[in-house]
Design a protein that fits this description.
2 domains; 10 helices; 4 strands; 205 residues; alpha/beta; Rossmann fold
Length: 205
Amino acid sequence: MGIKDKLKTGIQRNLNQKYIIRLLDIISKKPVLYAYGSTFSSLSDKYLNIFTIKSLKNAYSDNNYPIGYGSLFLPYEMFHALGITPFLPEVMAGFTAGLGLAAQTLKESSSNWYSQDLCTFHRSASGAVELDIFPKPDFIITTNLACDAAQKSFYIHSVKYNIEKNFYLIDVPYEYSKESISYLTGQIKNICMDISSKSGMKLDT
């Protein structure tokens, strides 16, 4: 059994954060991490997966840095400027599917009344949230792009974690103009200032 198959089997049998943290501690060590990276055929896949493992370790570790859930179409520079560890549930839905967990996460989302009309990425991510296998966020930021699902499902996540006041929706205008740019940048600036005041993290500009 190869290293990737062992990872899949281990997580499928131990679907909990404690095991995930233990696993990340092991595979984030350089010899194991680069051995895992060598199993990918292209350099881009190799470095993407290595970066993902490192980011996940930060998200699951107790490092006293805030964790932020974010949807796909966000300027993630704001996360890094605020010292927030980004965690992308939609992307992780694909990652968990690759680990053979989709059947469990989709079943859990259905058990919690998430509609089957919702896209699979959001259903799977929501199931993972309900199973408590994703790290608890301190902030959640989403936009109205590119689908409507993110707005509602991410808000439901904020309710579950009791952080509704730390849920932010960026309204991206559909037209391109000076006014729309000013409107969008104003929202981003206000969100950054609000998070900075709540977290105590000085905005690194």
